[in-house]
Write a structure and sequence with these properties.
By secondary structure, this protein is of the alpha/beta class. It folds into 2 domains: 2-99, no CATH class; 102-251, 2-Layer Sandwich (Nucleotidyltransferase, domain 5). It has helices spanning 2-12, 32-35, 48-63, 68-100, 126-130, 167-180, 201-207, 210-214, 232-251, and strands at residues 106-117, 135-145, 151-160, 187-193, 217-224.
Length: 252
């Protein structure tokens, strides 16, 4: 029951408004402002279901007093998982709010690199994986609103035999999208991780010329911390990876 609560029920108890903001909640376990260190209000209640996580480990520590170190490690991991669920709920709401701001002239762009595409088995060791060179895959997902408020999603995959992931390859991928997409975009908002291939001065300098080169206004760029949230690109990469593996085995 506790595992089900952590995986499914907990995030439904967190309050996020339609505009992506949150506010004070009397229950300290469900107050996102308190979790982010921004709440100055008093909390007068607690969630008994959420507190079960700590009660379970308190009981286990009394019964298994010789395994305190191991129990502390497990509790720390579950606490980090709880924090991940909290961030995922909040960031997911921000993404939906950004989509609600779309009109027929703009787009939300989600970009990400696939770490490495390798024609290898799923059972290889980590040393075998990092000892190989693969292909670079950069994916750009374009979210646009068409007629009758229908959401249109387009995927652009760009491959390179060079494993380097830098600002210049990233800028080239964006240029290919801007020159291909029809109708042309007037404004965009971008969502990505904060890796060096996105969060760097070279790419920011290039972005400052996008309006002159392509007529595209950048209204915002949201950088996600590593491991904070999964985006739609991750599901797309999983599909691309499996298709690549199947194609490889058909050829050889």
């Amino acid at each position: 029951m506790l595992r089900r609560h952590l995986k499914r029920d907990y995030e439904n108890e967190l309050l996020v408004h339609d505009d992506g903001t949150t506010s004070h909640v009397d229950c300290i376990n469900h107050c996102l402002l308190y979790a982010f260190g921004e709440c100055a209000e008093q909390h007068y209640s607690r969630c008994t279901t959420c507190d079960q996580l700590f009660e379970v480990f308190t009981t286990l520590s009394h019964v298994l007093d010789s395994h305190d170190t191991l129990l502390s490690e497990y509790q720390e991991k579950l606490t980090c998982y709880l924090a991940h669920q909290t961030r995922k709920k909040y960031l997911g709401a921000q993404f939906n709010t950004t989509l609600d701001e779309l009109d027929e002239h703009g787009a939300v762009i989600v970009v990400d690199y696939k770490m490495r595409i390798l024609p290898a088995t799923a059972r290889e060791t980590k040393s075998e994986f990092f000892g190989k060179r693969g292909w670079t895959l950069h994916t750009t997902l374009i979210f646009q609103k068409k007629d009758n408020e229908k959401m249109d999603v387009q995927a652009y995959d760009h491959w390179s035999c060079d494993t380097k992931q830098d600002a210049w390859f990233t800028a080239s991928c964006f240029e290919a999208v801007f020159n291909t997409i029809n109708p042309c975009l007037h404004w965009i908002k971008i969502i990505s991780d904060n890796g060096g291939h996105y969060h760097n001065s070279e790419l920011m300098a290039i972005i400052s010329h996008w309006y002159d080169w392509y007529g595209v206004e950048v209204r915002g760029w949201i950088f996600l911390e590593p491991g904070e949230a999964k985006t739609t690109v991750d599901s797309h990469h999983a599909t691309v990876y499996m298709s690549t593996i199947i194609l490889f085995f058909r050829i050889f």
